[in-house]
Structures are given as structure tokens and as C-alpha cells.
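Issue 218. Parser rejects a valid record. Input:
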Amino acid sequence: MLGPNRDNSVALNETLSAPLRSNARLLVLARAAVLVTGLGSLSYVMIGGGFVNTDAMWSLVWGREAMNGSWPDYAPGPTPHPLTNFLGALLAPLGARAESVLSALGFFALGAFFYMTGLVAYRLFGPIAAAVATALVMTRDVVLFYGSLAYLDVPYAALVLGAAAMVIRRPRRGAVLVILVIAGLLRPEAWILSGAYWLYLMVNDRREWKFLGLVSAAPILWVLSDLIVTGNPLFSFVATESGTVTSGRPTRFAGVLDAPVFLAQTVRPLVAVAALMGLGIALYVRKGTLLCAFLATTFLATVAPVLAGTPINERYLFATAALVCVAASAPLVLLKGPGPSRRAVGGFCALLLVLNAPGQLARLAEKRAEVRFITASRTDAHRALEPSVPCGPIVVPNGRLVPVVAIWREMPVSAVRDGRRGLPDGSYLWGSAQAMVGIVTLEGRPSSIPPAPRGSVVRMSGGWTLRARCGRAPRRGRAAS
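Output the parser choked on:
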């Protein structure tokens, strides 16, 4: 009689505890959402503004084209990414307001990136390391800059770190691959991470063959997307490789050699030194194996496509940079450890981080001023187009403003022309040399801008001027709309 009663009691306890577990999960998710939102809002305050970069604006254009029932025209734009294009399609009904929503999502992604960095540090080394790692990555000026421009590399890095945090808690779980599939629709580096994790699963259990379909999902979806839209399954790779040639950015072996330099510049040299010491200490106390694996795989996954001909950029290394910040936080937990040598090492690493702070805060202030200036100048350019233009097409100095104006005016991208390819009769939006910095001309990127075309001045806003030359029959009102 005791056996059945005991079984009934266990079953009753499990039935009663199930809602409690569900409520506990919801509470954890709600707390995480609040923290992510708070960190994203704090990021906005720290950087002082933000806007949507040109590449992301193309995603809005392509999403709108898809929602209007036409195939997106990838030819004039950057490398297309399936997930951002899908997001662009979801935002298409919002019209010009989609830009503001995408900018807000960019700061939310920043908050998620910072939260996941702290979560990885917490699960590896505890709350002190979590606080320090979060503070370090939040004060990297490069991270805040690209995050404020809603670059997709930030949500990609957040997803990769989220997968790492899941592995720390339970090393063998298929849900990690689901996260990496999503990341793989943003950047192809996640395909390598998925394959590496699947091989790790396979080492211990041959039955994990069942996850092969999940591992190959992201590359298959990406190739199918390119094939359906362009007829070329390798369009994204070919477009990226050809764009690298024209941009002059480092690639292949030169790019691989530049990757550690970019990484050190992002986290700063003193933090990199502290991270090396922290990694050594973590390995010594047998807590650094996973961190080493994460650092190696994320870095190698980033440089592997570079060897194949794609460019290297500091924002591609954000996940690795965050893990470097985690490693730099590790020695601080030794301040409480036994023995004077441990405390000395922890104190020395803490000193390195303190010495890094003044210079980093100065760089952050410079980047904040830059973002505020570009944001204000971009707003002036927008105002110069409102409330109407005399006639179309709208001609801009180069291709970087084409998708931006198309979204602002809610017009087909074909109604906006690149001034480098001719100056037909129409409305001309041109800025002064200073006003166009960071918008039309980018540091380290070659660009050619034709002289401002002649025409009647319609409107001026800040450093931007709208002129028009409408021919014999100018079209009034919202012409090119």
C-alpha cells in the first residue's frame, strides 16, 4: 500500500509544481527583458543619439519591395541578409516610421548584447565578473557607435553569446543550435559555429546525427533566398567579394593578420593584457576551458570567410571582443582568494582596468560627439526634403543616400538617383563637405562626389540644400512619391 500512495504523492507534487516552474520561467524572462531594455536605454543616453545605417535601410527597401509583390533588387545594394530582409518586410506597413522602429530595435539589441556578456561572465566567474565585464563592453566606443547605427553585427553577437551562456549551463542541448540557426541568417560565421558545436555533440553521442538538418538549415535557407531572388545561389558571397575589391578593406591573409589588431583596438590594449592574464588564471584554476573554446571558435569563425575573400571589420569581432572582456574580468574574483600571490595578480589586473578608464572615457566622449553631429546633420537632410520636392527624380551625391531618401519619401528606390551616374533634370539634395561626413563620405572608405548641380534653391536646412531643375513642365507637390 505504501508504493501506490508514494507514486500518487509524487505525481501530485509534480502536477502542483509545474505551474510554479512555468511562473518562475516567466519571471526570469520578464526580468531579463527589463534589464535588456534598461541597458539599451542607458546605451542611448551614453552615445547621445543614433540612426539607421545605409545597409539596414536597404533591408527596409527590399522588405517593402517584397511586400509590394515584386522581387527585391539586390544589385545596387550591399550584401543581403535573409533575417534583416524579413524584418524589413514586417516593418514595411509602417512606411517612413519603420526607420525609427528599426533604430529602437538596434538599441534593444545593444542591451541584449550587454546582458548576454554579463550572463556569460556570471555563469563562468560569478556576479563581480559579470558586473565588470558588462561595464567593460558597455564602454567600448566602437561597440556603442555601431550599435547606435543599428548594425546587424550587434544582434548577431548577442545571439552567439546567448548560445554560449546556454552551453555553460548545460553543455549538451539542441536548443543551442536553434539560436545559432537564427544567428546564421544574420551572418554566415554562425554556420561554422553550428558545425563546431554539432561535432562536439557527435564526439560523445553518435545519435546526434539527428541535428544535421538543423545545422544545415541556415546555409540552405540563405542559398535558397539568393537563388529565388537573383537566380544565383551564391549571389551574397559574390557580391561581398566584389564589394571588398572596390572598398579597399583588407581580406585574405592581410585581413586575417589585421583581425587581432582590430580586436585589440576594440577592447583596448590594457584590457587585452588583463584578458590574457585572466585567461591564464582561469585555466590554472580549471575554470577557463569553456572560455578558451568560445574565444577560439568565435575568432576562427570570423577569420575563415576572410581567407575566402570577404573583408574584415572590427564589428565582425564583437562576440570575440565581449569574451575578451569576460576574460579581463576573471582575475578580479581572485581578490578574495587565498594567498598573497593571487591577490597581487588580481590587484594588478584591476589596476590595468582602472588605467584604461580615463582614455576610454575620452574616446567615448569623442564618439558621442561624432554620433550627435551625424544624427543632427542627417535630420537636416531629412528636413530639406519636407514637405515636398518640386519634381523628380531626386538626385543625391552618391549611392549611400539612395535607400535613405527612398524610405524617407516613401517612394520606389528607382525614383532616387546616384549623382555620380548623371544629373538629369530633377530635385538635387546636396550637403556641404562637412555636413556629408559620416553620411555620404565615410572615413577609410573611397568615395567620389560630383560638384553640387546648378538649379533653383528650394530649401536649406543646416548644411544641406535642396535645388531643383525641373525643365519645361515641373511637377509640383510630392512629385517623386
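Fixed in the parser; the record now loads. The chain has two domains: 40-372, 385-469.
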